TrEMBL record:
Family annotation (CDD domains): THUMP_AdoMetMT
Domain of life: Bacteria
Residues annotated as domain THUMP: 42-153
Gene3D superfamilies, alphabetized: 3.30.2130.30, Vaccinia Virus protein VP39
InterPro entries in alphabetical order: DNA_methylase_N6_adenine_CS, RlmKL-like_Mtase, RlmKL-like_Mtase_CS, RlmL_1st, SAM-dependent_MTases_sf, THUMP_dom
Protein name (record): Class I SAM-dependent RNA methyltransferase
Amino acid sequence: MFDLIATSAMGLEALVAKEVRDLGYECAVENGRISYKGDATAIARSNLWLRTADRIRIKIGEFRATTFDELFEKTKALPWENFLPEDAEFPVTGKSVKSKLFSVSDCQAIVKKAIVERMRKHYKKSGWFDENGPLFKIEVALHKDVALLTIDASGSGLHKRGYRAGQGEAPLKETLAAALVMLTNWTPDKPFVDPFCGSGTIPIEAALIGQNIAPGFNREFVSEGWHWIPEKVWEEARMETEDLANYDQPLDITGTDIDHRMVKIAEENAFEAGLGDLIQFKQMQVRDFTTMKEYGVIVGNPPYGERLGDKAAVEKMYAEMGAALAPLDTWSIYILTSNEQFEQFYGKPATKKRKLFNGFIRTDYYQYWGKRPPRTK
């Protein structure tokens, strides 16, 4: 069994933890990380299935270190040979927060040296290692004098799903887009609309969720090259994603954007994800949105008006959006923005707000809950 960590953006920890539990693993939640135990299959399944996690790391050790000697000796005492083959390529990155050992470059060099010493002894080698084999990205993270040593099992961050052929200037991370959908009351039998679809990330993530398609089905992971995870483990984990996908689930998902170039990029991205026929994209301004459908869900990440020249235009657009969406009393509407006056311009207080970070921008997720459908007897 391995000690696994799914890292998470601030504010999404509870969602990542729910996903980990849904995969069948008990977990503990801390700031920015969800810890759980699992075997090699858990490494594969976590990478393939977790929609809202940033990446999967394997914890090798955690200990107090206030001197470089202590960091060296305690790193050297860890069983690196269980993970790293003789030809492993193992770069070390680092970070340090509120710790006596604040020089990250020194910490990285010391951890590297300690691992090399340990490996030399194990592999009975006197010189340097060639490092021309599989990649093991090691991180030393110091926080309040506690060092956490991990190996990255994902490679590229999990938000890189492999479908994004093009993007706009301020693309939403796929992991956050999935979170925005999962924080709504949407179910695959309801209409779903993103009136600010940009490069199509939110509608594409909604379609993947709607058909239960694993977000990592279309990409590779660095841990697929590790000798101690048998190929069969990955084959079976990928077969599971095929077995559980519900490709026959009909979906009613629409993305609209004011910019016809973004609509074209969104269409290309949807085709790249294998969802081209499932999502309708069209050029439209939010003020022109109308629908006869009922009990749908709108999720939007509109411009925030962060740049001075944009503020007035964006606030006018918020007001137009409020007027256009006001008649949709059976629809639930969810809008992400950093504009703290959003409710005033939109013309209605939110049912609920949730604080989220879009990259480094602090935003609120404004939630307007629609009427519930009548109960059928």
